[in-house]
Each structure stands twice: as structure tokens, then as C-alpha cells.
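Write out the 3D structure for:
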Amino acid sequence: MTILSGKPPAPQKNTRRSELRKPTDPDDDKPASYNDTLRRKTRWSILWTILRILSDQVFAFVVFVVLARLLSPADFGIYAIAQAVAEIGRAIAIGGMVQNIPRAKKLTPALADTVFWTNLVSSLVLAFAVLLLAPPVMAMLELSRATGPVQGLGFVLPLAALGATHLSLRLREFGHKSLALRSVVSGTIGGAAGIAAALAGWGIWALVVQRLATEAANTIMSWHAYPWLPGRNFSVPQLRAIWAFGFNIALHQVLSLLPRRAMDLILGSIIGAAAVGLNRTARRTTELVLAGTVNPFNFVALQTLSRLQSDSTELIKAYRWMVSKSAMLSCPALVGLGVLAPEAIPTIFGEKWETSGALVQIMCLMVVPYALSSFTSPMLMALGRAGTLRTFALGQLVSTVAFALAAAPFGLIAVACANVVRAYLALPFQLWMLRSASGLRPQDALGAIAKPLLASLVMGAVVWALMDALQPRFSNGLMPIAICVATGMVTYGVLIYAISGEARAIARSHVKAFRARALKR
């Protein structure tokens, strides 16, 4: 691995070519298309991301279950409010600038160094601002119990900034394989630290310890994955050149985070901290499913779509491919979770989380927005439409606050139902934005998920009837859940194979690859 610096390094034998190329590099001028090479890189990156997220989420789920049994809903609610500050600060200090790296047509030492040092300085300034401002602000909101966790999570920002540029540089090269190790190691370290702190009686601080330990391990592993030493090539002209895009992306990310965090504040102030904890647990459970079905594709989407930003035909082709493959996983997973959640959540987490089971069921009704909305941001980022993203995120914030305020007096379930209605009302605007930016027709986007959705709904009806029949026959709640999960997987597999030619082609290609490997042996 070559080390980024101000001067080109001397050639080394068996050293991978650096991504930091001279402006005259002919590769920068080659037209990009969604050809076999880019498809292969995308598929392998998605595969490694799936493996990384699955291993990461399985462990994270175990840790989450342990902490949910050790801590109270109020603890999780206070932590959710504290984490809001850290997430918003991260988006402001880090989130926007690093997005200049994957979409840069020419990557230079000045760009990498400028992004790194801007992120680090911004994160340090924000961390100390949080340290000073948290006491009066939390007191004003009557959430003084959250002051200490807010201050502690503020120092997640410089830890994250130290590794953010390295991670972005590695992902620009589709380096998702090495990222898998980083995620597993950091998740293990953070989870172990959090459980140890909870067992020691640290309460809410166990969650803070988990976050700090995870982020520190993430940074160390990012430097290991891309061994680059930041240089002294910080450039004010370079910062001016990337500032507008980075600022708009950061603003979009902040506005995207604010709806759920605003909902936490609304729930906490109108219903109580326990309501925030119940809602957070439900949302976390739903996100675990999305992490294994949507996120692997979403995570790779920006790198792939950025290479096709100049060819709308190839761009749309790649978008539809990723949406359809993601929907084949996310639609059955969300429908199945929605059917089983009222029984599964209290069985796994404990009876005190029963309300979260009902909330998960309601959240899973957003299966269509989840399947499509996750790819709106990478598509518009790849096209440089940061202003459009910012405007849409602002609309999401205003509508979320309005719907939550209107529904909160009627209880937590009413707020969840209102959020589902809001998500479906927002979907046409997303499809319109995509058409304006790229030429993608709404029927093409919806058509990419139609067959997986149909097969999933039929599967859901079968699982619902089966669960209703099995539940009275078993005293152990896990047994009917396991039977229903297995039945649902088989049912969906048969249905999607029967109605989708794309699914049949995927199955045939896997069988062919398996036979080829068997013959080689």
C-alpha cells in the first residue's frame, strides 16, 4: 500500500497502485458504464458488506438483548436523547466532507488532507462546545439526567473523525472485504465493554462506554485497512472547492437525523422517557433487519452510482438492479418481522418491552418506503444534487414534527401510525425528485420491488395463519416463532422463484457456480 503524501512515492514492487492519481492519469478520462467489471466490483462489495453486517448485527443483537434485560426503558430513552447530540454533531463535523472522496473524478493528496484536517478540527470544536453547552441546554429541556451522557458522547466525534477519511478512501476502492474485519472487531470490543459496564452497575453509562469503545476500535481498524498518513497538503482553495457540496450533504444528514431525534424529544416531553426507550427499542429492532437486507446495497450504492453519474441510462440500470436485489431480501424480512413481532419482542427482550412489539409491527408497514427511500440519497449524491437532498430532508423534518405533535397526545401507538402515513405521503415526492434528477420513471422504481412485495405479502398471510394455529399448542414462545420463520422462508422462496424470472436467473447462476466448484474438486 502506498502512503499518501505531498510527493509521489517511489515505485515499489508488488505494491497496489494508489488511488491518488495525477490529473493526467488517462483512467480519469475513460467513460464509465455499468459493465462486467463494475458489476463484479459492486457484487463482491455487496457480498462482503452482507457478510460484514450479518456477523456484526448478530453480535450486536445479542448485546442489545443483554443490555435490554439489564437496563430499563427509561435508561434507553435518556441514552437516545444523548445520542441525538452525538449523531447530529457527527453529521456536521464529518458526514458532509468525506462524501467528496467517493464522487471525486480525480483524487489528490490535497483533497484527502483537506478533508481529514477539516473533519478533525471541526469535531474537536464541536466536542468542546457540547461539553460546555450540555448542562444549560439539558436543564432548559428538563432532561438534566442526560447531561453527563451527552458530554461523554460528544467525544465520540474526534474519535470518529480520525478514521473517517481512511474509511472513505478504502471504500472508494470497493474495499469492503477488509472492512468486514474492522466491523466485527470493533463490535466485539464495544459490546463486551458495554456488557461489562452494565453488569458492574453503571446503568445508562454502559451504553456510553459501548459507543466510545466501538468508535475507538473502528478508527484503529480504519487506519489498518488503509495505512495512510495525513500530510501537510491542507489547501484553502481545495476547501473552497468542496465546501458547498460538503456543507449541503452535512445539512442533509443533519436534517435527515432530526426527524427521529425530534420525535424522541416530543415523546420524552409529552409522554415520558420510557416512551422514548420503547420507541427506540422498536426502531432498533427494525433497523437490525434493514441492516442485513438494505444497508449492504445502500452502502455500496454511492461508489457504484458515482462512477455512472455522466450516463443516465447506465445509472438507472444500476439503480434498478440494486433496488430489486435489495427488495428480494428486505420485503420478506420486514413483512415476516411485522407478523411475528408482537410475540417475538417480549419473548426475546422481556415482558417489559411488550409495547415495542406492537410498535415494530406498525413500523414494518413502511416496507415500500424502506425499499425505495434508502436509495434516494446515494442516487442524488452521485448526481451532485445536494441542494435537492437538503430541501427534501427539510420537508421530512417539518412533516415528522407536525405529525408527531398532532398524534402524541393520543399515545405512542398513535405516533407510530402517524409516521407510517407520513412516509407514504412523502414517497411520491421522492419519486418525482428522482425523475427530475435522473429520468427514472416512478413505474420503473416501483416495478423493481413489485414481485418481491407480492410474494412477501402472500408469505406473511401464511405465517400469520400458522402462528395463530401454533401459539396455543406451545408453552415455549420460541418454538412457534422458529417454526413460522422456517415456513416463511420456504414459502417465500417458492413464490419468488415461481413469479420472478430474475429470481430464477439468480438461482440458476448459483447452481451453475456450485457445480463448477464441485467439478474443480
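The longest helix spans residues 312-349.
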